[in-house]
Amino acid sequence: MLENGESLVAIVPMKPLADSKTRLANRFTPSQRAGLVTAMLGHVISAIQGASISKIWVVGGDQKIRDTAQTFGGIWLEELGCDLNDTLDKVFDLAFQQDASALFLAGDLPFLKPSDLHSLMQASRRRQNITLAPARRGGGTNAILVPPGLAFRPQLGPSSFTKHLSQAAALEISVAICSSPGLGMDLDTAEDVATYEHMEPGFLERLGLDEINAGN
Predict the structure, then answer these.
(1) Among 15, 25, 53, 60, which residue is least crowded by beta carbons within 10 Å?
(2) Domains and CATH numbers, the chain
(3) CB of 23 closer than 8 Å to CB of 188
(4) pLDDT tens, position by position, 158-172
């Protein structure tokens, strides 16, 4: 059964643009990287809205991230913790205080669709278990849906997907795994850009980045 989007908060953590996508520094200028980051954030927020999730919190970043979040209809929050996981821990608690499930989503998912998010919500089985979406490579986790009342917390970083499975097992919490191209295909490296341009010619233009030539 599809969980009501009104009882869910989508949480998208972000870095300041100067610190974002540094592995693309040899490929794109700082201005181009900033444009790529904000375009993907706008795409992710639009997909969330398309899934009828009305509460969207973009956490951290800088003024440009804040402006982008608000332009696309999200609410911007300052970073609340000493690092990413501490911040998410605190923001999850804010969602739980509203009796809402907390949905962490990576902000760099250029193929994310509302249907991917519907699948995540369906997998929660009326808020009976957590749902994890693995990254396509690297052992990361690109989405985590946690209902209120569960002690599960994000452990993002190297091998996070395995850590999340281990934590759930230790807490005896059931886990659903939701895999799809939209949830799995994040963008971190020049190789990612080349792969996505091969898959979808005009990929960067679709994000509104006509000035970036992926072949440079």
Answers:
(1) 25
(2) 7-206 (3.90.550.10)
(3) yes
(4) 999 999 999 999 999
pTM: 0.93
On whether the CB atoms of residues 54 and 75 are closer than 8 A, the answer is no
Half-sphere exposure (CA, 13 Å, Cβ side) for 87?
19
How many Cα atoms sit within 13 Å of 205 on the Cβ side? 7
What torsion, rounded to 10 degrees, do the Cα atoms 45, 196, 143, 7 define? 30
Distances (CA, A) of 83 to 80, 89, 151, 165: 9, 10, 19, 21
Q: How far, in Å, CA of 168 to CA of 162, rounded? A: 10
Nearby residues of 188 by Cβ (< 8 Å), 6 or more positions away: 21, 23, 24, 108
- CB atoms closer than 10 angstroms to residue 1: 8
> How many angstroms separate the CA atoms of 139 and 87, rounded?
21
Rounded distance, CA 171 to CA 98, Å? 23
Q: Say if residue 215's pLDDT is above 80.
A: no
